[in-house]
Amino acid sequence: MSNFQAPPLTKVNKVLLITLVSLFLIHSIGQALGWFSLVQWFGLLPGATFPLRLHTLVTYPWVETQLMAVMFNGLALWFLGSELEGQWGARVYLKFLFTSIFLAGLVYLFFAVLFLRGTWLGGGVLVGSAGFTYALCTAYAVLYPERQFLLMFAFPVKAKWFCLIMAGVELYIGVFSGNPASWGHLFSMGIAFLLIRHQTWTPIRWWLKESSAGEKGGKKRDSQHLRLVKGDDDKPKYWH
Q: Which domains are delineated in the chain?
């Protein structure tokens, strides 16, 4: 077995990790002292007064309440996010990440109001950085379906099956445990899949591209966006 080597931590993901850990510490201190809870300020709550809480569509994944979740999701940002950012560039990576989170939040709001509230299926306040992790895992599974993850840190599983197992677990938890986070995770996976799998659709292609840089004489360079590249043996697949 080849030696494992972690990818270098990129600047964008370093900032994301510092933000995530800092907000977790602030929330933990506020909770311990009984002063405040970031869940009340930044959590995504179906049926809440809008537009006063529109900011929660982008703030809800930054509120983490458990140390193990911070560690696990932080590692996902480092290992998966750094590799994807290195291939896509910082702009495309951030667009993908926050578009997945924002649209997943919107879908969750409508889904919770129409089907979840007042039932055993949940529909409560949505928080947690796992939305980032599930979006990244889905993107990675689409781009590198044959690569292997360690299920439960022990059993090697191909990325495509690992992602499907995660989706199945979240669906089970959402249906039988009424955990609102599970629905948010599933929606993050669905949005991420659509963004990557259907990148050739014009609106997505326009959005997931690098901004043009001006040149002398007012001309602009051709915009770069993700395109699917295949090797001679049709592996590996990646976006460039």
A: 11-209+224-239 (1.20.1540.10)
51: tokens are 């537009």
Residue-level pLDDT at 102: 92
C-beta of residue 92 within 8 angstroms of C-beta of residue 225: yes
Length of the chain, in residues: 240
Phi/psi at 231 (nearest 5 deg)?
-80, 180
Half-sphere exposure of 86 (CA within 13 A, CB side): 11
The SS3 assignment for 65 reads coil
Each residue's pLDDT tens digit, 99-152: 999 999 999 888 877 776 666 566 678 898 888 999 999 998 888 888 877 665
Please say whether the dihedral angle defined by the alpha carbons of residues 170, 172, 175 and 177, taken in this order, is positive or negative: negative
Distance CA 42, CA 58 (A): 9
